Amino acid sequence: MKIRRLASGDAEALAAFYNGLSWHSRRTFRPLGWETTPEVCEGIVRDNHPERDRKFDLIAVTGGEIVGWGFLWHLDTSQPTLGLAVADAYQGMRLGNALMDRLMKEAHRRNLSRVFLTVVTDNERAWRLYERHGFVRIEAFRGDDGLPYYRMIAELGAEG
Ligand SMILES: CC(C)(COP(=O)(O)OP(=O)(O)OC[C@H]1O[C@@H](n2cnc3c(N)ncnc32)[C@H](O)[C@@H]1OP(=O)(O)O)[C@@H](O)C(=O)NCCC(=O)NCCS
Q: Where residue 64 sits, what CATH number does that domain have?
């Protein structure tokens, strides 16, 4: 298993990973809506290009297939946002934990002062994982999709 930054040539595999997530996983993780396309994923690849650097996306790859995806988005705003998903067949093997380690290391490396995320309240595995990586719940709200969410924040203690 290799964890690396999303790069040129990964768009199709990322779309296949996303569209292959089960209904249950997509209920709690759909930053790209219910389905995506290689074109949309190509845009994410472009935003990872060092010249643009608006997004930092990590993928876990095995056998040429993406089985995990974690990201820091909105890096050009005051509200960087974290997202994370692991392919259903690979959940519960600590891959989510490994991606979180790498994402938080990157957040520190970039001197981000805060990182935000939202999580469905009944997704206890996810929010407990986030708590172990320094996130705290700051509010509960109902999403446009009718689901109850927590908004969480990690204060990284950097200046600015
Ligand atoms: C949430 C998710 C990213 C976690 O990744 P994962 O690789 O399955 O998780 P891990 O194997 O690293 O386990 C994380 C922790 O949760 C714990 N855990 C497992 N099942 C749990 C449960 N039902 N309730 C609470 N904790 C649970 C594990 O013991 C582990 O704890 P540890 O780090 O102390 O050992 C993954 O399950 C997933 O992609 N879910 C669907 C999409 C999603 O909901 N993404 C998050 C959106 S906010």
A: 3.40.630.30
Angle between helices 124-132 and 95-109 (to 10 degrees): 40
Which residue range is the domain that position 61 belongs to? 2-111
Model pLDDT for residues 33-76, shown as the tens digit of each residue = 999 999 999 999 999 999 999 999 999 999 999 999 999 999 99
Measure the CA–CA gap between 75 and 110, rounded to whole angstroms: 9
Angle at 101 between CA 72 and CA 18, to 5 degrees: 50
pTM: 0.94
Q: Which of 86, 135, 150 to mutate for ligand 1's pocket (most ligand atoms within 8 Å of CB)?
A: 86
Domain contains 69: yes
Is position 132 within any domain?
no
**Closest residue by CA, ligand 1 atom 23:** 125
- Residues within a 6 A CB radius of ligand 1: 25, 28-29, 84-86, 91-97, 119, 123-126, 128-129
